[in-house]
Design brief:
Elements: H1 8-21, H2 27-56, H3 61-67, H4 69-83, H5 94-97
Helix pairs in contact: 1-2, 2-4
Length: about 110
């Protein structure tokens, strides 16, 4: 379930619901649910910001398409961490989202 938490929004929802229904709550899955949600939030924020800026300055399209590759690379790094069963934050934004989503552990 820790790996599934990084695979699109639907995968995150499936992992979350499975985590909530399980009798034994895994710290690893809880941690990676938070990291995956953090990456999704950053992706949405970058997409909205990019859309607003691109509507004003369309010449920056290539730059923003490259910027939108960053969350994809972070997802891959999160999947690698989850498959290695480590609770290591993803680079750049992982520390920001550690311990922020306490609703996941209830």
């Amino acid at each position: 379930m820790a790996i599934v938490a990084y695979i699109t929004v639907i995968g995150w929802v499936i992992a979350f619901l499975s985590f909530k229904r399980s009798a034994s709550k895994s710290r690893l899955v809880n941690y990676h649910l938070g990291q995956g949600l953090g990456i999704l939030i950053v992706y949405i924020a970058l997409s909205v910001t990019g859309a607003v800026i691109l509507s004003v300055i369309p010449a920056l399209a290539i730059v923003f398409y490259l910027v939108l590759l960053v969350p994809f690379v972070l997802l891959l790094l999160g999947i690698i961490n989850a498959s290695n069963e480590t609770e290591r934050p993803v680079p750049f934004i992982g520390k920001i989202f550690e311990g922020r989503f306490n609703f996941l552990s209830n």
